[in-house]
Amino acid sequence: xxxxxxxxxxxxxxxxxxxxxxxxxxxxxxxxxxxxxxxxxxxxxxxxxxxxxxxxxxxxxxxxxxxxxxxxxxxxxxxxxxxxxxxxxxxxxxxxxxxxxxxxxxxxxxxxxxxxxxxxxxxxxxxxxxxxxxxxxxxxxxxxxxxxxxxxxxxxxxxxxxxxxxxxxxxxxxxxxxxxxxxxxxxxxxxxxxxxxxxxxxxxxxxxxxxxxxxxxxxxxxxxxxxxxxxxxxxxxxxxxxxxxxxxxxxxxxxxxxxxxxxxxxxxxxxxxxxxxxxxxxxxxxxxxxxxxxxxxxxxxxxxxxxxxxxxxxxxxxxxxxxxxxxxxxxxxxxxxxxxxxxxxxxxxxxxxxxxxxxxx
Length: 361
Fold this sequence. Notes:
Elements: E1 2-7, H1 11-27, E2 32-37, H2 43-49, E3 53-56, H3 73-91, E4 95-100, H4 104-114, E5 118-122, H5 129-135, E6 141-143, E7 154-155, H6 162-165, H7 169-179, E8 188-192, H8 199-214, E9 218-222, E10 240-243, H9 249-255, E11 258-261, H10 265-274, E12 278-280, H11 289-299, E13 303-305, H12 313-324, H13 327-339, H14 345-357
Parallel strand pairs: 1-2, 1-4, 2-3, 4-5, 5-6, 6-7, 8-9, 8-11, 9-10, 11-12, 12-13
């Protein structure tokens, strides 16, 4: 059995693909897995680090308006389709699973050319162009959000890493806080802007640091690998720990009582899977999908929601600090977040992919 996975660009496309790869390997240790990506995406770092084979195809961004660049798309896309089809022929692919991103369009069309069964997974409530195309080429379409508008799609949830879905935050809390140099018995705020960080979140959290410290709240602040703070938090207690990147987000979640974060599909899925309440700050640009990701969690009582333009130190002081100062409210919000989570989408999708590859679905 040989499975080809196509999802690249951002962690939102790559992480579900890798979670599926782990689940497929758990079900069938002898399975062959090849990941498709482009040289411009995070997959060049994330895929090899997880031990999977990565093959690159040319990236073909599609212009969103009528520009001279549009005239170059057909030729470049034909080359990318040929490259993707060639890889699938060489590895003798039994099935292609696409998750979106630049690489997914040529992968879907290459699979169609080779007669390889196509599976589409869309994590977001508003599907991207690649997955809208892919969904027209197959009957095997799965979605992470119940209301995603893809005709005939089956809701299955978002595949997540087992290190996240198996996490017991309560039993791991003391170890996780010690790992980051935090105190074991203080309320803890996790601040993160996702895989690339978020300057607006970084600025607001740092400005709120003195008030958080006075209230006895410690902070674990992940600023993003390409970001620096305009000024460092002054030394003192409780701790305000600043890190550029954390490769053990399971420990970061276990260390925290509450999070301040973006509203990406993977972030929302991971936080609800582990039962960590959060204040969500959706990206201020794009198609509004981050707000749609976070709204059901907030409506269920598992989080707060604030526009990026309204996020200030004062907002954190007036909204996040009271939650962290009220243990009963933290517990109630944690339970509400947990009820919105899904832990088994990786195995459910893996079983369906194997059935499709064998021609029994």
